[in-house]
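Handout, page 2. Input:
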Amino acid sequence: MTARIERPLSPHIQTYRWTLTMALSIVHRATGLALYFGTLLLAWWLIAAATGPTAYANVQAFTGSAIGRLIVFGYTWALMHHLCSGIRHFVWDLGYGFKATEREALTWGALVAGITLTVLVWIIAYAVGGGR
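Output:
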């Protein structure tokens, strides 16, 4: 008869206490995926601009609608958040920011900067007449 050997459990999502760093790491991956789909919208806009006024008017009608603006706003946020979170990962790749306080500061900084940059881009866009 063989004795049962107690082995350590493999770590999984229920083992760890959730932190902001963990959540934003997952959001970083999700925004990377969202950027793929948002780039299809950007390609549609560019192709329509090259095709002619009717095609361009169709894209403008979609992006000017409530759902279109929400999608473009989400794309803008995904782009800005992914950028700021990428800078955070770059700092870590350089070997800095691994202490708990530094890690939290970088994470909060990426979160706040992504939101701030998104709002700033939209304010500037409306200020120069892009939101008509």
